[in-house]
Amino acid sequence: MPYIPHTEDDVQAMLAAIGADSIEDLFDEIPAHLKAGQLKALPEGLSEMEATALMAARARQDAGALCFIGAGAYEHHIPAAVWEIATRGEFYTAYTPYQAEASQGTLQTIYEYQTLMARLTGMDASNASVYDGASGLSEAVLMALRANRKSKSRRVLVPRSVNPRYRQATDAICSNQDVELVEVVFDAASGLTTPAALAAHAGDDFAALVIQQPNFFGGLEDVHALTDWAHANNMLVIAVVNPTSLALLTPPGEWGEQGADIVVGEGQPLGVPLSSGGPYFGFMCCRQQYIRQMPGRIIGRTVDLEGKPGFTLTLQAREQHIRRSKATSNICTNQGLAMTAATIYASLLGPDGLEAVAAHCHANTRTLVAKLTAIDGVSEVFSAPVFHEAVLRLPRPAAEVLAALAEKNILGGYDLGRDYPELADCVLVCATETRVESDLQAYAKALQEVLA
Amino acid sequence: MPYIPHTEDDVQAMLAAIGADSIEDLFDEIPAHLKAGQLKALPEGLSEMEATALMAARARQDAGALCFIGAGAYEHHIPAAVWEIATRGEFYTAYTPYQAEASQGTLQTIYEYQTLMARLTGMDASNASVYDGASGLSEAVLMALRANRKSKSRRVLVPRSVNPRYRQATDAICSNQDVELVEVVFDAASGLTTPAALAAHAGDDFAALVIQQPNFFGGLEDVHALTDWAHANNMLVIAVVNPTSLALLTPPGEWGEQGADIVVGEGQPLGVPLSSGGPYFGFMCCRQQYIRQMPGRIIGRTVDLEGKPGFTLTLQAREQHIRRSKATSNICTNQGLAMTAATIYASLLGPDGLEAVAAHCHANTRTLVAKLTAIDGVSEVFSAPVFHEAVLRLPRPAAEVLAALAEKNILGGYDLGRDYPELADCVLVCATETRVESDLQAYAKALQEVLA
Amino acid sequence: MSGKSIDQQLIFELSRPGRRASAQAPKALPQQALANIPATLRRKQKPGLPEVSELQVVRHYTNLSTRNFAIDKQFYPLGSCTMKYNPRGANRAAMLPGFLGRHPLAPESHSQGFLACMYELQEFLKDVTGMQGVSLTPMAGAQGEFAGVAMIRAYHEARQDDGRTEILIPEAAHGTNPATAVMCGYKVREVPVNRDGDVDLEALKAACGPQTAGLMMTNPSTCGVFERQIDAIAKTVHGAGGLLYYDGANLNAILGKVRPGDMGFDVIHMNLHKTFATPHGGGGPGSGPVGVSERLKPFLPTPIVGKDGEQYRWLDTDDLPQSIGHLSAFMGNAGVLLRAYFYARVLGREGMIRVGEYSTLAANYLLKRLQAIGCTAAYPERRASHEFLLTFASEARELGVTAMDIAKRLLDYNQHAPTTYFPLLVPECFLIEPTETETKETLDEFIDAMEKILAEARENPEMLKGAPYTQPVRRLDDVKAARELDLVWKAPR
Amino acid sequence: MSGKSIDQQLIFELSRPGRRASAQAPKALPQQALANIPATLRRKQKPGLPEVSELQVVRHYTNLSTRNFAIDKQFYPLGSCTMKYNPRGANRAAMLPGFLGRHPLAPESHSQGFLACMYELQEFLKDVTGMQGVSLTPMAGAQGEFAGVAMIRAYHEARQDDGRTEILIPEAAHGTNPATAVMCGYKVREVPVNRDGDVDLEALKAACGPQTAGLMMTNPSTCGVFERQIDAIAKTVHGAGGLLYYDGANLNAILGKVRPGDMGFDVIHMNLHKTFATPHGGGGPGSGPVGVSERLKPFLPTPIVGKDGEQYRWLDTDDLPQSIGHLSAFMGNAGVLLRAYFYARVLGREGMIRVGEYSTLAANYLLKRLQAIGCTAAYPERRASHEFLLTFASEARELGVTAMDIAKRLLDYNQHAPTTYFPLLVPECFLIEPTETETKETLDEFIDAMEKILAEARENPEMLKGAPYTQPVRRLDDVKAARELDLVWKAPR
Ligand SMILES: Cc1ncc(COP(=O)(O)O)c(C=O)c1O
Ligand SMILES: Cc1ncc(COP(=O)(O)O)c(C=O)c1O
Questions:
Q1: Locate the Glycine dehydrogenase C-terminal domain: which residues (chains C, D) (predicted)?
Q2: Which one in C54, C267, C404, D113 has a CA-CA gap of 20 to 30 Å to D299?
Q3: Rounded distance between C-alpha atoms, residue C277 and residue B330, angstroms
């Protein structure tokens, strides 16, 4: 009986103490007609050896390609220490720190994480993670509706240059509460959200403006102008940012005159493997005045009976287990372990290390773009400066070219036609610090061959 | 400065405390002409990312073959828990438990290991590991010379059916102390050490007889007869055993009338990966009366100031750090972590699990032999029953056939011609529980093709 | 004589300007490399991340970790949380480089291995729950609930059945249930629970009507007993045109024994981080797949894994135009799902059934033995499911010792405390869930500890108020934490 | 109020007949499958391995591990042991499936990746030591010593220089040195050490003669000082026809700064588990490669990695007929060597030199500060190398407080004790080695602890005799352990 320790003697002793004849008797309150028959889809159990061999074969099947896809998930070097420590039983197999005295390890780690994220984003406070960047945006939108006292609207302005997957998830989640996401077009030349595009909405009642930096195309928005415009129009500013980029870029807390109000984003770049899309973690920060509207767990520092410092869950009156239907969100289990990994990662990188990572990503992507646009018929689409992704136009439909590249074991980027019909011949490419010169060359060579 | 934490401020403060102007000053006692110039062979330092990528590429280069080599190192399933726990910093980065009170984790683990090995081998005591099986045999030989009061000889009888690598290492080590290993031939039909072969040495003065079970050819020796013969001739019996096999086979403590006197072997099959040959660990057990002659660390249970049980190094008067030139051996650092892994492994397998592993190894090897000997020109060489290895004769030189198989990514066994000229067309094959039916088939198919 | 108390500094307090874990950073590039980025968008001050050495980081977080209770170290009988053994083999399998390195947007040609695992997991989950369709995307139980209720909403909307504005929820329900209903735009109406832990059927009937979108419940309920009137409840809700939602947090109790689909539920979420033994990671991640009956299949959240011949492929909103859509950027917590897949493969058909059996055996044994040493069961007439409720209301009244005091004292006995004060309807309660992976000896140790604590409560109640005594900190001041918010460390000047 | 003391049972005490970690065992086979094995060779009783569940094993050894000090948790200034940070990156690289899965006897065609690492490591080690040939096979320092002295012997024998029966060893030397000499069939003659830690040169001259096979020493010596007369010593020994052996345990002190080859040593072993930062694993494994000067190259232990064009290949006794041969079954502790290779690649040329520099800086700082708080240096006139000696002889005399008492008390301050009572020639000594990977703050904490303990020694010497107070056990009775041997657990009846 895998993972079940009971011997026949144990079972008999336990049944005797209960006063039951058989285990089956313990289910005697269940109406007989409800009892299940045999399971069918499930095969016979395997040993650990067999299950491991099976999964190792499957993992091998998918491995080995050279990947230039970003589009919201980025391959970075992850120091070995990160997951060797994060998977220590004490972190890996603990529950949510409800018994604070027996969970100081997790609690202090979260407090450090909160400090870290507040410093990286330039905000006052952080929660202990939400599911991911996309669902984080939906929480931010709902939070903005609660927080913006100046607005009565259930509408939020969302540029088309914001990650379409974030927009879709936010719509799927928030539309249940009749929230409307109103699109703002991007400038066809720069790929940015321009004041001109926003002007159409000036004076309208919106609860918030979402600003993604860098935007989905990798471009750097004029966040200062956008932020100030939103605040001038009584909107809160929800920043969606890439944490790696913050080692280089103005933190949302310093955008424009007053800074962003709520900051969310995908925490994956901070030490979390690509892993097919999860577990990652969404981070969420805000200004002091909005803390009580923030969803998710928050840790506070306090003292014990003897005055010694310690950490505990706080502001629980925002949460479902206390406030039930009046909670800020239904979130309960979050992405704790990934957040723990990120805290270790950021500590290992430090400010200079993270900046060096960001700089290498930027430089590698620039080099890749130069190499690829040297190929006939390939050009860069947008004029805006980018962080570590860029949009390239191909002489043929992107889907077709990407499929041909995949046959050469090169995953050549994200097909923008999936979300932007007008960009059906465009790919979004990314080269992080993990790509070396020969990788970039391999891509260029393969593309040349495919397009020849 | 990788792994060095000192900031410029730290360095200045430390130099000031020392009263030195520069780090170079601290080397002022070293004659100037001895100072080294630049290192040449060493390249510039890499980041962890770069070094990891380099080694990952190299590791991939060597991976992927289907292996049927045994010959002293065996692929077994290793439960994930084994190394996830053994590489916890507390085990992985601790030193030898010289400060017992701060090392109870390691010490209790060793005490459990000693108990385990004593039970597996049927002996009274165990040390905390020596380097490997081969060097372990050399220690056993030296120990037997010290322990056998009835013999004045520096000669030991070692059958040719004992692992030739063990014989070579033992010779390389013991010949420095003028110890002579005298060979005993094996029976050409059975591949075993027979009473007839031993009879030639009856009455001669030897300190010990070495008995390997299963022997290098995988064959099962008549250990009872051999043991009794040795004892009758005033020799000690040194058993060399495979720990997995002991789940099935008579433990050395029960060989013949009195049992073996010293037991050694390679511990690798107990949860230690093949890993190119190391780190493995040699185990070493003995009868109560010889404990004071045993080399290596030994842990004892005792009590603390308050009478609470605890564990500590004991019988240190045998060891080099106390007895220096009079020590039983020069061994200091041993193979502790591998031994820790083995302790966890054996606990996870338990008596039934280890027996099942042994039985599958046996059955798989028998199936493989059947499949291969069904091929024209391939035959089993020896008649003796085997544990999990067998010798096959090929119609062509083994080296040639193995090379052809390797091109098909099948490592078809060990070329016995390397050590036994008379077996130049023979391979030693092994199929442990990790080999499945389709693996065995793949081997048979490839061999058929190679020999066609 | 205690020597130095090993107080744990913050990683930020270990920071020194210019210190770095150099092996981890790529070589610095000349600023020239960044010339493309406009100065106005560059950050002016370095972010205040810690500047520490690699050894400092390793030592700091290793030491921090030791200040946690965890399954790998202690018995952890948190009711409703299913703290069972998290197989290490599952961790190793999910952390295979081939899985860790796969980009979520990798083409299907480079994803067949992963997709095969996910497809099979979908099939397994259908089988054990008796549902007709499964989506793996929800990232935790609460997101599964969200998906489920959003599907109920989408279903009614698709039928233009517009007046359904209310979700019914038994008062014992977990907080996520009402919070979810509200996130889906519903009003919540709570339904009372009987003295014996079952739903008050008359009250339910009275509450049901044309405004009823559905009922969310779990069975066995969070009272730790099996809801015996489930047929009648299903009939009532369905009769009113509502749908039945199953909160799968308690699935462990009945895994393989009773299938929610057979009980009449239309939609269910599963907490794989409970029932399927994936770890909790100190708060997450989890995974909350949803299963649905035939009529809700069109609404499942995307993506889902489909199979064309021998090829696996993603089904997305193109294939499922009525889907409630994406709830996250990619496909869910893949790494958690791989662990659950491993677990399902190892347990297999027979193993699944044993889970419900042995977790129920353990709970009933523990309950009976605790009653024998003087604990008060909330529902003494009932069988325990995989968990059960005790109440310390009389201890609180007579000795002034609360459930919280007993919980804290348990920590001194190296036992994690059960869930306290949940569900809210039972005063001073413990919800205790031992799971099937703990030995009888471990249960007996817990019983011994409880017996000693009950004796302490009688002899020295004041002492219990001071518990715990053996942890890194004594009892913490939660009020101060909330009143004088200290959420982010600021360097003292 | 302490609740339950978490006493650790033995894994055997947790055993129950018939319990098993079933996921780990293959399915049992019918006895028929074993029919080939003669009954007389079958074991009659199952071996008494523990019968426990997987969770029990995980929990038991996880909890056991927490009862250890370790680099990852504490400062660990064990002199002569070089307890520096063990990079986690090295562990990950060495545990790559491709490396773990490689059979030691795999053909060269399937070993080029591994052999490339080993070949380069050989080259690196030659470079940093200034030697002409390297073999990686010795499995620890002591086996390296054995290989080295065996080569000295083989060298003399090859020249038929037969009267050389003695190895000279300074009295401060590590115990493995004399033990090794004896294992190689030599007699040991100890050479005294001066008041300032250098070898007594006159005594050495007197001891040298035609019977001298060689001298084993380390420089810096285990007195923690650099042997300044090394030129004269080399001349003396070489002049007498002996060879010079370098015990590389202290290589960390001079890594990249001074090369043993340049000092005149003929043969050297390195402790990669010290200088090259591979972990100690609670006692092992280590790795003790040997390096030799030109004249000893023919004798190196096999196998060695050679290079033909672009192909790497094993050189064995066929290629090196004068080799002292194999010291183990395969090629040495490959996994440790891979870790060392990783370390060397990350440090690179510059990093190697910094090791010696910063470890020396740390030692001299610590020495000076400890002297300032009242500790007595054994060699106050000397620079510290990477380590240094304190003596508590006066504390022992005046207060009755021994080095052992202070060592045990340090544990209460969460500091691992330095090496005690070694070398034997300095009474009541501490040999302290801080290494280059510890921060100044960590050194300062150690100084603070020592200051407090010295105060305690004056105010309350009795208290120190009872130390430690904060560990899982109080001071253990070693005498009882040796007198009433309890080496193997026997179930009480
Ligand atoms: C009964 C019940 N429902 C729902 C949930 C929510 O699940 P999750 O924490 O995964 O979001 C829980 C988790 O604690 C629960 O116990
Ligand atoms: C000076 C010295 N020489 C030799 C050795 C022996 O090395 P090993 O323990 O690796 O065998 C040591 C190890 O402690 C040492 O300190």
A1: 357-459
A2: D113
A3: 48
Chains near A, with 3+ CB pairs < 8 A? B, C, D
pTM of the model: 0.98
Closest CA to A69 of A350, A354, A435, A395: A435
pLDDT above 80 for C2: no
- The Cα A439–Cα C102 span in angstroms is 17
pLDDT, tens digit, for every residue of C435-467? 999 999 999 999 999 999 999 999 999 999 999
Shortest CA gap A75–chain B (Å):
12
Domains A66-76+350-451 and A80-343 share a fold: no
Contact call for residues D336 and D285 (beta carbons, < 8 A): yes
Nearest CA to ligand 2 atom 8: D141
What local confidence, expressed as pLDDT, does residue A318 receive? 86
Q: What is the pLDDT of residues A381-439, one digit of tens each?
A: 999 999 999 999 999 999 999 999 999 999 999 999 999 999 999 999 999 999 999 99
Residues D471, D415: Cα–Cα separation, whole Å: 12
Taking an 8 Å cut-off on Cβ atoms, the answer to whether B2 and C52 are in contact is no
DSSP secondary structure letters along C410-466: HHHTT----EES-STTSTTEEEE---TTS-HHHHHHHHHHHHHHHHHHHH-HHHHHT
Cα separation, A94 vs A102, whole angstroms: 10
Q: Which two tokens stand for residue A116?
A: 């870290």
Residues from A contacting B (CB-CB < 8 Å) are 47-49, 52-53, 77, 79-80, 84, 87-88, 433-434, 436
Best residue for ligand 2 mutational test, from D78, D174, D433 (most atoms within 8 Å of Cβ):
D174
Nearest to B212 by CA among B163, B145, B277: B163
Nearest CA to ligand 1 atom 10: C141
Interface pTM, i.e. ipTM: 0.98
Superfamily of domain B66-76+350-451: Aspartate Aminotransferase, domain 1 (3.90.1150.10)
D228 φ, ψ (degrees, to nearest 5) = -75, -25
Query: Which one of C55, C96, C405 makes the best mutation probe of the D interface by having the most chain D beta carbons within 10 Å?
Result: C55
Burial B41-75 (b: 16+ CB within 10 A, else e): ebeebbbbbbbbbbbbebbbbbbebbbbbbbbbbb
Question: Could you tell me the pLDDT band of residue C493, with boundaries at 50, 70 and 90?
Answer: confident
Contact call for residues B3 and C54 (beta carbons, < 8 A): yes
Mutate to test the interface with C, among A55, A77, A213, A313 (most CBs of C within 10 A): A55
In chain C, residues 48-107 whose CB comes closer than 8 Å to chain D: 53-56, 58-59, 62-63, 66, 71-74, 85, 87-89, 97
Interface check for D203 against chain C (CB to CB < 8 A): the answer is: no
Over chain B, what is the mean pLDDT? 97
Is pLDDT above 60 for D3?
A: no
Rounded Cα gap, residues A370 and B165, in angstroms:
58
Instruction: Please report where in the chains the tokens 């990947």 appear, as a residue.
Output: A67
Q: Which among C3, C6, C439 is the nearest to D469, CB-wise?
A: C3
Cβ of D144 below 6 Å from ligand 2 = no
Domain parsing of chain A, residue ranges: 66-76+350-451, 80-343
What is the arithmetic mean of pLDDT over D304-321?
96
Q: Domains along chain C?
A: 3-65 (no CATH), 89-347 (3.40.640.10), 355-479 (3.90.1150.10)
DSSP C50-90: ----HHHHHHHHHHHHTTB--TTTS---BTTT------HHH
Q: What CATH code would you report for B80-343?
A: 3.40.640.10
Q: Which amino acid is at D57?
A: V
Of D3, D73, D463, the CB nearest to C59: D73
Nearest residue of chain D to residue A82 (CA atoms): D88
Instruction: Determine the pLDDT at residue C77.
Output: 98
Q: Do D349 and B120 touch (CB under 8 A)?
A: no
